[in-house]
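Per your request, structure below.
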């Protein structure tokens, strides 16, 4: 809207008039709030807070998370989390704001409480910000009816397995397959990029694992040692899967941080069943994989530049509302339609953007 304040003051009157006419049996055939709020709201960059803006836009477009954050009741004032309050304010403007952009400076200021590598006003790693923000929100929601919000939206389990075979119990019998397991919960999964040209390859490397043999053989509770395979697989799958590609690493020869710009592709639909505990069990028994609904790609946070600096932006596809199913580019205050056919060129890496 070119006159956001005038539109904002007009909206309540329009909605009231619509309700009155609807009660009289005279429907308008249009929702004035949707007509005025048909676009997406951008976020003002405080100089180097693109990492925060790009992450928030993608999080906002996860309906269950957005609605849960906005519905979360405030804690008693003495215990209230400034970060939760400012995320709620930011999401409210992204949902209801009639201006083309919102200035999240209060959220940036509140985020100084997070143990980020650098000051919140400086550029930080988007994945680090997401992890620390998630921890803070979980703590802020503890004890409320929305305490499980993040786990219910993004929470899954990783299973660390050690697999080995023991001698058959009877002569001529088949070896007995044994599995030792330990589960750990996650809100986002880190995948190695080095040596892998796709997300599927990186997942495959997790479940292929490493051989434990010789001096490094697996030690049994009895004290004996056996050759084994140590691997990771997915246990419980989350409703929304958040994947972080490990593009930044420390070069111990040069003693500097480096960015891996090598290409790594990802599909629009990802079937994780071959990388789950159940899928691996089926494969071990020679059984077909059970059907599993694939994940639909909903958003990508992109970093363009080097390990020393650059710019974050994001691409995302709303799952609900009047723009559902359409892709958009979120670049701070600038929000534009985006052709998803360009995702490989813009997001796979192999150049400056990755």
């Amino acid at each position: 809207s070119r006159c956001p304040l005038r539109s904002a003051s007009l909206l309540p009157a329009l909605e009231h008039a619509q309700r009155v006419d609807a009660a009289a049996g005279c429907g308008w055939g249009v929702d004035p709030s949707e007509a005025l709020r048909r676009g997406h709201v951008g976020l003002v960059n405080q100089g180097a807070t693109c990492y925060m803006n790009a992450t928030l836009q993608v999080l906002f477009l996860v309906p269950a998370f957005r609605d849960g954050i906005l519905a979360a009741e405030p804690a008693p004032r003495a215990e209230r989390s400034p970060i939760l309050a400012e995320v709620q304010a930011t999401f409210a403007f992204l949902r209801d704001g009639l201006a083309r952009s919102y200035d999240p400076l209060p959220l940036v200021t509140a985020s100084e409480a997070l143990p980020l590598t650098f000051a919140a006003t400086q550029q930080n790693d988007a994945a680090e910000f997401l992890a620390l923000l998630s921890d803070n929100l979980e703590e802020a929601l503890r004890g409320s009816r929305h305490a499980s919000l993040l786990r219910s939206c993004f929470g899954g389990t990783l299973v660390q397995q050690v697999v080995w075979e023991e001698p058959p119990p009877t002569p001529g019998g088949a070896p007995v397959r044994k599995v030792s397991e330990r589960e750990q919960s996650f809100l986002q999964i880190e995948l190695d990029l080095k040596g892998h040209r796709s997300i599927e390859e990186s997942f495959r490397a997790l479940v292929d694992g490493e051989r434990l043999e010789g001096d490094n053989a697996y030690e049994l509770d009895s004290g004996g040692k056996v050759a084994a395979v140590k691997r990771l697989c997915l246990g419980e799958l989350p409703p929304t899967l958040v994947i972080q590609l490990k593009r930044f690493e420390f070069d111990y020869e040069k003693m500097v941080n480096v960015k891996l710009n090598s290409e790594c592709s990802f599909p629009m639909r990802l079937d994780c069943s071959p990388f789950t505990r159940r899928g691996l069990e089926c494969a071990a028994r020679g059984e077909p994989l059970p059907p599993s609904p694939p994940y639909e790609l909903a958003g990508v946070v992109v970093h363009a530049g080097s390990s020393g600096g650059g710019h974050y932006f994001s691409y995302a596809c709303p799952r609900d509302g009047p723009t559902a199913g359409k892709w958009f580019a979120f670049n701070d205050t600038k929000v534009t339609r985006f052709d998803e056919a360009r995702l490989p060129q813009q997001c796979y890496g192999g150049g400056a953007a990755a």
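The radius of gyration is 24 Å.

Regards,
D.
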